[in-house]
Design goal:
about 30% strand; five-stranded mixed β-sheet
């Protein structure tokens, strides 16, 4: 029986712009990470000195030097080059390299380490337990990885995370405890953590993972009785959200337009006169709305608007009070974003902007905006909670950071990618308290350059990439030469991968246009089966990156495939443009397995990936089209937008 869906269609008006001449900044792989790697030179030299002593005749002295270095760099995250090719290079924390070296010790050296630091590790553990701080316990487990306190500290840290209602962190910590440094599984530890892991999965609502754990435990503990069924029915266990994989999406068979509006467009300040950006021609939308169960939120240049999702009626009209009302958007890659959680609603606004200056028609500097974030309380009276661009902000670095890409809000945390100008464009990942806006932590990701005017000033606004939070790890794409993974709760760097940016030609002529373009639209990061898929705006490649290590497993030139990467379905990565392309997510480079079909004059609005295909707006037909992933199926009109 066919199921009918009602679509509320909001069409973003086309915005055209042009590009003028400028001096382009060419950057090859190897330069973006230099500011971060240079700062670690001293620590890396100490590491190499300690290793040379261990491998020589001074093993004990080398172990002591290595441990002193390990403890001294805790929390600083100095990076060390891990591996590289002529197309990408990978940096990881030096502390990870130290732990890997300790793990590789032969049994004799491991025993020397335990005798030297066992007593000290137990003393530090006792102090950390008395503080009831999971961070201190994780520090103990990291600093003394070959001692018996590692497992004790990780189990205790997981218990504290669960008590603090952070089951995701608890689950990850217990999993780290099970992945020890020995080849054989510790069955006693596995048994002790089994019930804890069940409770955490139940609280997270991960039913599929709970069933997988049951199968795993049944296989490993064949002679023991397992009590999974009672846990599933236990009302004392807090239920979480249902797995997405268990929710059967509605099929798209027939669409009915509930409402449509272009009222918001009069609040968008856009100029086509001197636009410089990733696109050299064409039109597109610069708005990125957010949705709740009842409304859609749209942040424009001057106002935050909310419309009833069922009727289209304007229910909220809030002035953003921009700090530079004269500023006009010039780059359609910009996203005037809004994001929301159950309790808060955030949006971007122009806190301040420089004015354009020129000499005889040559740009000295362009009008460059700094975008702040504002946050409103949805659970209460809807009051403004905080504003990163406010002069009352005590953190000068936060106040002068521009946030151009949409953040991620989960619980009481906000993760946002921002940039500051200091010769280079310095990109930093911030973690803020969702209710106060205060910094929890911040970490530098990359320092690089955008296109420059002939006077050495940025010729366009840096448009940063997207953020993804998954299993306690924050992944981010800078669009300035680097992709990074950091631990969500404390910002500890897991890895930073630098890719080869596309070099640009330099144009000095006053009226000669610079034809600079990106084949990609600003796409979200996609993760599937431990693989990260990223499409940086400053690169023509689609990267498949191993999420746990940062190693590039495969890359594909995206020419003809983009501009949209829509996500994954049924183990396939779906891309959309003039062609609808699906590729096996586990091996995107396996071109003979690609399935491709022509699309019907798609507009520049972002398509939607649904259960059995893709829904998109056809610009030529002014219609909503549904197209299956099967290349032999014919695209079908499900709604006419002109009605």
């Amino acid at each position: 029986m066919a199921m009918h869906c009602v679509f509320a269609v909001v069409l973003w008006g086309g915005l055209a712009f042009g590009c003028l001449s400028a001096s382009a900044a060419g950057s090859d792989v190897g330069s973006a990470l230099i500011p971060l790697l240079v700062g670690a030179d001293g620590a890396i030299q100490e590491y190499r000195d300690a290793i040379s002593r261990i491998e020589g005749t001074e093993s004990l002295d080398g172990i002591r030097r290595l441990q002193v270095l390990h403890e001294s760099i805790w929390g600083e995250d100095p990076l060390m080059l891990w591996s590289e090719t002529n197309k990408w290079r990978l940096a990881r924390p030096l502390s990870d390299q130290i732990i890997a070296k300790l793990r590789s010790f032969d049994p004799e050296l491991k025993e020397i380490y335990r005798q030297e630091y066992g007593s000290r590790a137990r003393s530090v553990l006792e102090r950390a337990i008395s503080e009831t701080d999971p961070t201190a316990l994780l520090r103990v487990a990291t600093l003394y990885p070959l001692t018996e306190v590692r497992e004790v500290a990780l189990v205790a840290a997981g218990d504290l995370f669960l008590e603090q209602d952070q089951p995701e962190l608890a689950l990850q910590t217990w999993q780290d405890a099970l992945v020890g440094f020995e080849d054989e599984l510790d069955r006693d530890l596995y048994r002790a953590l089994l019930m804890r892991r069940q409770i955490a999965l139940k609280r997270l609502g991960k039913s599929q993972d709970l069933l997988a754990l049951k199968k795993e435990a049944t296989k490993l503990l064949q002679d023991e009785e397992l009590d999974f069924e009672n846990l599933l029915d236990d009302p004392s266990v807090i239920p979480g959200k249902i797995d997405d994989v268990l929710v059967q999406p509605l099929r798209v068979d027939e669409g009915v337009i509930a409402w449509k509006t272009h009222d918001y467009s009069r609040h968008v300040a856009f100029s086509t006169s001197r636009g410089r950006g990733y696109y050299s021609d064409g039109t597109g939308a610069i708005l990125a709305p957010c949705f709740s169960e009842d409304w859609i939120g749209i942040a424009t240049s001057r106002k935050l608007l909310r419309y009833d999702l069922r009727t289209g009626k304007l229910i909220s009209d809030v002035s953003l009070r921009p700090g530079a009302p004269y500023f006009e958007e010039q780059d359609i890659a910009t996203r005037l974003w809004s994001v929301n959680d159950e309790d808060v609603l955030l949006c971007s606004y122009v806190a301040r902007a420089s004015r354009r200056e020129d000499y005889l028609g040559f740009d000295i500097q362009v009008s460059l905006p700094w975008r702040g974030m504002k946050c409103w309380d949805l659970a209460g009276a809807g009051r403004l909670l905080w504003d990163t661009g406010s002069r009352d902000i005590g953190d000068e670095m936060l106040r002068t950071t521009s946030f151009t890409s949409a953040p991620v809000v989960e619980g009481d945390r906000v993760w946002a990618l921002g940039w500051r100008k200091s010769g280079y464009i310095d990109v930093t990942l911030w973690c803020l308290d969702a209710h106060t806006g205060k910094k929890v932590w911040s970490r530098p990701i990359v320092g690089n350059q955008v296109d420059l005017t002939m006077f050495g000033e940025p010729a366009r606004e840096p448009i940063l990439g997207s953020i993804l939070v998954d299993d306690g790890i924050v992944y981010c794409c800078s669009n300035l030469g680097a992709v990074a993974a950091l631990r969500a709760w404390d910002g500890q760097v897991q890895w930073i991968m630098e890719y080869d940016r596309d070099s640009q030609r330099s144009y000095r002529g006053r009226y000669r246009p610079q034809r600079r373009s990106s084949i990609w639209s600003p796409n979200p990061i996609v993760i599937e089966d431990g693989m990260l898929f990223v499409t940086p705006l400053d690169c023509n490649q689609l990267y498949a990156i191993e999420a746990s290590s940062g190693i590039v497993r495969s890359q594909v030139n995206g020419k003809g495939l983009g501009p949209y990467m829509l996500g994954t379905t049924d183990g396939k990565l779906v891309l959309f443009g003039d062609l609808l392309t699906s590729m096996v997510a586990s091996d995107i480079g396996h071109r003979e397995l690609w399935k491709q079909a022509l699309t019907r004059s798609p507009g520049l609005g972002r398509p939607a990936l649904v259960e059995d295909g893709v829904v998109y707006v056809s610009a030529g037909e002014s219609a909503l089209i549904h197209q299956r992933l099967d290349p032999i199926s014919t695209p079908r009109t499900i709604a006419v937008l002109s009605e």
